């Protein structure tokens, strides 16, 4: 509805995290307020469970505004209930809405709580830390809690209420089935309960409502209404609305005739224009000014909604700070109106649902499909499914989408397109066998067709991107998908999702990082222009990794800074790229030489868990490489256990078996068995599109004395894969091989080329190999002449640090002296060294004299010779 996208993995729209605005239906009931205050004070969890029409939302809305406690509000809808992650995201959104009521320290602490890509446990721990430090408790109201009853009872509601020392209390409102999920807590006495008997109106409250409406009602009349309605609030309100001033009371009402009562005593007493408007407007339970105008055709639709709200006609208002308002009909009333509409004018009823489907399709596709099915318009439902399935999948909506696809499938014979979409859903949900079965059925149906229409062709192409495992098949699917996009016309929302998915898949192929960056930049621009903030956030973290993987570390850092602290969405899509943001940060740290920071990032991912073909598995490889680079023998032995978490087969185009072998070989080389490590990688010549593997393997071959094998691997790197850090590593290894072959000038030229590339992106890792020959060569190169003296000086001063350099120098030089020594190896003067280090010339001279004394030399030349 409106132009705001519903995003369920980050901040929710205001109308889901705010109580409805006070109205006639939100009257303060002193008895219920006192009862709620008492139960909430005594129990960490309070249940309000009663059938529809017991004014649970209105009661809690009125109580929340009168309460002395800080009250957060969360209204559940199906999309929010898809997973523990999306529920936790909803809770965080509700708490963030309370920020103006928090102290400065509390607000800062809450701002540090974010969804974590590796699971909900870390987020719950952060949230618990925030809660136990609160000065005053927070109460969270969760409306329509029956939608996620078991997930709440077994999830964060129980966990947080138990571990936060009373600083967080929950009030859960829902239909009676809510109770069954909390039976044990109710029996244990750790949850309180208010039911229909508590929520039913008393004769005194009925009389008070009539008095406030300026309608005379005797004590006997109030008792009669109580007897007729059982105190059911919606029935009492209906009776009140139907009461005529000269009648002295209201006609009896029973549940069996509620629909007729709405028709005659509510709608029948309104002017025809307003009554007809209400019948049409209740087509959508939740709507805004744009949607109500579209569905009802009334140019003054919002004014009519305001009239309904002001007269207490079962409508809640959710305004925001920008003066936008979302309206929500009370469910029981809307159901009665829709029963009337479908009974009296079925054709119009179906047409309005079709109109609603069209209006919701762009930003609320799942709701749109439901409306199309109610309209019995299968073609419309299928078209919405076709245009939105990819975006819903990307939004971690596979479970919901699969259910909708099943509903669409029930309306006609077996449909290949629906089967393909269901296959992709099952793949994301982890049901690989079921996915393959549906995929085979779909392909079988397609094979019997004389021709394939463009819509089915597009779905087939993008489904292949989900389901193909072999790199060659995946590459062909990407090329076909790109061609399909160029020849088809799609709306901006669908186009943004397709651009992202193409870029995401191109990234998995590793064949052309620059192309992946271009596609993701385009997708980001389109998602932002279309107001798709959730999609834009996902594109942004993938772009962060694409830039890192493409060797554009400066640009990646800029995106990281922009996204810093945004948290990471978790959900079904987490199966594909969970942890990608953390990995991108660790990957950048690794190649820029910040090995401890990189090791921590990858360790956090591994600790959070992940399957054998995820970014967590890739983090295991890089954690091995970090450990090898740092050179701690004990850590290297422990790192062997990481390898078991890496798959042994190719999946979705990723050669996990190659990564696993590289990790094993790297650890073996780190223990001194370079030849044994080299033997493990005998089949790497056939490897394509993984240049990091090739440069790492080439360096191991060089250390094993197999320079021809090393050069063969380096020669196998295709031009698109020769990104900055790959080119730097390849040139450094190639330079050392040239040096070993006596080709000294060629070696220096290659090293200078490596420095040309490395200096631009601060690429350090290839210069940190635990190899004395490399450090001697860099020192010699400083004298040979370089355009990158400062960069090279830093590499010399830190080269081998922690492996053998300190042993060579007898652990004598301080950190600053090592920096100065690195510059002494270059052609820089003392003045230039001072400028580079931001110290005075006298300070440089002092360090220089100390270095000479510790090394037992008297000149700069002797010091350099000592080092070499």
From TrEMBL:
It comes from Arthrobacter psychrolactophilus. The lineage of its organism: Bacteria, Bacillati, Actinomycetota, Actinomycetes, Micrococcales. Keywords: DNA-binding, Transcription, Transcription regulation. Transmembrane segments: none annotated. Residues 806-868 form the HTH luxR-type domain. GO terms for molecular function: ATP hydrolysis activity; DNA binding. CDD domains: LuxR_C_like. GO terms for biological process: regulation of DNA-templated transcription. This is HTH luxR-type domain-containing protein. The keyword Zinc-finger does not apply. Pfam families: AAA_22 (PF13401), GerE (PF00196), WHD_MalT (PF25873). The keyword DNA-binding applies. It comes from the Bacteria.
């Amino acid at each position: 509805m409106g132009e705001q996208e519903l995003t369920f993995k980050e901040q929710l729209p205001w109308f889901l995290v705010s109580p409805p605005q006070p109205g006639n239906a939100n009257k303060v009931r002193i008895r219920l307020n006192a009862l709620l205050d008492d139960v909430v004070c005594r129990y960490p969890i309070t249940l309000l469970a009663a059938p529809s029409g017991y004014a649970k939302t209105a009661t809690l809305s009125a109580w929340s505004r009168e309460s002395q406690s800080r009250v957060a509000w969360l209204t559940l809808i199906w999309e929010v209930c898809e997973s523990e992650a999306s529920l936790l995201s909803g809770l965080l959104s509700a708490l963030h809405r309370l920020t103006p009521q928090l102290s400065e320290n509390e607000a800062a602490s809450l701002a540090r709580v974010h969804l974590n890509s590796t699971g909900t446990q870390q987020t719950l721990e952060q949230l618990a830390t925030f809660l136990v430090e609160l000065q005053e408790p927070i109460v969270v109201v969760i409306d329509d809690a029956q939608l996620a009853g078991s997930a709440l009872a077994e999830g964060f509601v129980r966990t947080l209420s138990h571990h936060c020392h009373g600083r967080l209390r929950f009030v859960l409102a829902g239909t009676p089935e809510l109770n069954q999920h909390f039976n044990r807590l109710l029996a244990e006495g750790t949850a309180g309960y208010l039911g229909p008997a508590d929520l039913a109106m008393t004769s005194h409250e009925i009389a008070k409502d009539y008095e406030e409406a300026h309608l005379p009602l005797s004590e006997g009349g109030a008792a009669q209404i109580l007897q007729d309605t059982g105190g059911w609030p919606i029935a009492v309100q209906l009776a009140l609305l139907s009461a005529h001033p000269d009648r002295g009371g209201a006609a009896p009402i029973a549940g069996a005739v509620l629909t007729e009562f709405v028709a005659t005593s509510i709608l029948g007493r309104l002017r025809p224009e307003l009554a007809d408007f209400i019948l049409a407007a209740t087509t959508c339970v939740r709507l805004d000014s744009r949607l109500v105008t579209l569905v009802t055709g009334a140019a003054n639709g919002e004014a009519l909604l305001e009239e309904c709200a002001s007269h207490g006609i079962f409508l809640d208002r959710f305004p925001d700070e920008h003066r936008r308002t979302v309206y929500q009909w009370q469910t029981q009333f809307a159901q009665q109106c829709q029963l009337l509409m479908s009974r009296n004018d079925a054709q119009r009823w179906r047409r309005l649902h079709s109109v609603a489907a069209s209006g919701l399709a762009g930003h609320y596709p799942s709701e749109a499909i439901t409306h199309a099915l109610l309209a019995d318009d299968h073609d419309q439902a299928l078209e919405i499914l076709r245009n939105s399935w990819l975006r819903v999948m990307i939004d971690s909506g596979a479970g919901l989408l699969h259910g909708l696809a099943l509903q669409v499938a029930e309306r006609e014979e077996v449909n290949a397109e629906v089967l393909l979409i269901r296959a992709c859903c099952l793949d994301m949900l982890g049901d690989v066998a079921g996915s393959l079965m549906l995929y085979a059925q779909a392909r079988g149906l397609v094979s019997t067709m004389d021709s394939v229409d463009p819509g089915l062709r597009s779905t087939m192409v993008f489904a292949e991107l989900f389901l193909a495992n072999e790199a060659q098949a995946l590459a062909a699917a990407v090329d076909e998908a790109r061609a399909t996009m160029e020849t088809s016309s799609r709306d901006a929302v669908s186009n943004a999702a397709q651009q992202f998915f193409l870029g995401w898949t191109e990234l998995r192929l590793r064949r052309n990082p620059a192309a992946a960056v271009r596609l993701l930049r385009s997708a980001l621009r389109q998602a932002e222009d279309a107001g798709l903030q959730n999609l834009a956030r996902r594109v942004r973290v993938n772009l962060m990794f694409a830039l890192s993987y493409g060797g554009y570390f400066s640009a990646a850092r800029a995106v990281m800074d922009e996204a810093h602290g945004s948290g990471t969405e978790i959900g079904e899509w987490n199966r594909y790229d969970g942890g990608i943001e953390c990995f991108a940060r660790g990957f950048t740290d690794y190649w820029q030489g910040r090995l401890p920071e990189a090791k921590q990032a990858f360790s956090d991912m591994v600790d959070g868990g992940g399957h054998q073909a995820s970014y967590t598995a890739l983090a295991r490889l890089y954690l091995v490489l970090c450990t090898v680079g740092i050179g701690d023998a004990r850590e290297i032995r422990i790192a062997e256990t990481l390898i078991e978490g890496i798959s042994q087969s190719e999946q979705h185009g990723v050669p996990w078996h190659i990564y696993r072998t590289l990790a094993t070989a790297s650890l073996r080389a780190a223990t001194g068995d370079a030849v044994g490590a080299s033997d493990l990688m005998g089949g790497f010549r056939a490897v394509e599109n993984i240049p990091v593997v090739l440069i790492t393997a080439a360096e191991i071959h060089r250390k094993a004395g197999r320079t021809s094998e090393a050069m063969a691997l380096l020669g196998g790197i295709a031009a698109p894969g020769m990104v900055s850090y790959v080119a730097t590593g390849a040139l450094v290894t190639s330079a050392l091989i040239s040096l070993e072959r006596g080709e000294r000038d060629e070696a220096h030229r290659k090293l200078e080329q490596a420095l040309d590339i490395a200096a631009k992106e601060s690429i350090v890792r290839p210069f940190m190999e635990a190899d004395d020959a490399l450090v001697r060569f860099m020192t010699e190169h400083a004298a040979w002449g370089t355009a990158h003296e400062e960069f090279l000086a830093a590499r010399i001063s830190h080269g081998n640090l922690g492996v053998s350099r300190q042993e060579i120098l007898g652990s004598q030089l301080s950190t600053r002296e090592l920096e100065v020594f690195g510059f002494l190896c270059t052609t820089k003067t003392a003045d230039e060294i001072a400028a580079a280090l931001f110290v005075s010339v006298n300070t440089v001279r002092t360090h220089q004299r100390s270095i000479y004394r510790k090394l037992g030399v008297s000149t700069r030349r002797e010091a350099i010779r000592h080092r070499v």
